[in-house]
Amino acid sequence: MTPKILRQIKTRYKTWDRGKGKTGALFVDLLSDDATFRSIGGGVEAMKFTRPHSTKEKISAYFEELIRDWQMIFYTVRLFLVDGNTIATVCECAWKHKHTGKIVHSPKLDIIRVKNGKMHDFFEYFDTHQAYAACVPDGTVDTRRPKPLYKWSSTRTVSGATTATRDNVKLLKKLYARWDDTKGGSADAFIKVLAPNVLWGSLGAGTGPVAFTRTRLSRQEVRQYFKELGSAFQMDHYTVQEYIAAGPFVLVLAEVSFTNRKTGKIFVSPKADLWRFAHGKATEFYEYYDTAKAVAAAA
Q1: Triad 35, 37, 40: Cα angle to 5°
Q2: Is the dihedral of CA 208, 209, 215, 217 positive or negative?
Q3: What domains does the chain contain, in order, with CATH numbers?
Q4: What φ, ψ does residue 194 adopt, rounded to 5°?
Q5: Buried-most residue among 2, 40, 186, 272 (CB within 10 A)?
């Protein structure tokens, strides 16, 4: 990846926040003619603009339809994780639905693939359960004033693999292979690599029927997370597709399938797990997936 395209993408994110969602054309300018633009939303009825888009010309519709229905409050970036021709943008955003008045404040992950100095593919994760609910009018007035956790002055760009980076990837490859082989029966192997005061988060954030996804702050609390997960869902498969890594971070991209033990409903979703390591131990974890499907399977 050239320094130029990385610099351009970083500048576009800053302008996207400052322009409150009205600068989508600047992202389109960086796209290749045959670019693809995809979303965890998948084009559901409530948010049709999240349907897959192909070609630079058609991708403009995503930004036009987004700003038609939503008003950005903020969009801030914590981390640009760069591995080869891939950029993982770890961020958070808040939007207000123009027709219902409801507010969504969600962590977000954007996966950008670069080819020949242009953005060639884009995929985004956000809290779909929260976003879809905000599209449904119910007469309530949302008076929240969400504030960004991250500031532009603290945004990090991390690139380059160290020996420790490669060791962390090697470790996770073994753990995830076993996790899939045992269909979720090897949680203790993950527990052993955690720091005592690990920060363990989930896009589900403890919502209703997936209450086990609430934030955990210690190794013992994460043990309880796995126990509650196993009680609620049976793993069908956890297929890892790619590891994106640089510095102390490893992002694991996968497709997963779980069956809810109570309802019998199946939850299938792309999934991204972001790990941060220090001295061979995991100090931070955050998982991204289709929260609406997870909640629906459990309800």
Answers
A1: 155
A2: positive
A3: 3-158 (3.10.450.50), 160-298 (3.10.450.50)
A4: -85, 145
A5: 40
pLDDT in tens, 257-272: 999 999 999 999 999 9
CA proximity to 264, closest of 229, 299, 238:
299
Q: Are the C-beta atoms of residues 102 and 133 closer than 8 Å to each other?
A: yes
Hey, is 182 helix, strand or coil?
coil
Q: Is residue 229's pLDDT more than 90?
A: yes
The residues, any chain, with a CB within 8 Å of residue 213's CB and separated by 6 or more, are 202, 203, 204, 205, 206, 207, 225
CA gap 167, 173 in Å, rounded: 10
d(CA 190, CA 213): 16
Long-range CB contacts (< 8 A, 24+ apart) of 156-160? 156/78, 156/79, 156/80, 157/6, 157/10, 157/79, 157/80, 157/82, 158/79, 158/80, 158/81, 158/82, 158/246, 158/247, 158/248, 158/249, 159/81, 159/82, 159/83, 159/246, 159/247, 160/246, 160/247
pLDDT tier at 124, thresholds 50, 70, 90: very high
Going from the C-alpha of 234 to that of each of 229, 230, 258, 263, the distances in angstroms are 8, 6, 5, 11
How is residue 293 annotated by DSSP? H
Q: Which residue has the tokens 């061979």?
A: 280
Q: Is the dihedral of CA 176, 216, 156, 269 positive or negative?
A: positive
Q: How many CB atoms are closer than 10 A to CB 103? A: 18
Among 254, 240, 247, CA closest to 277: 247
**166: Cα separation from own chain's centroid:** 23
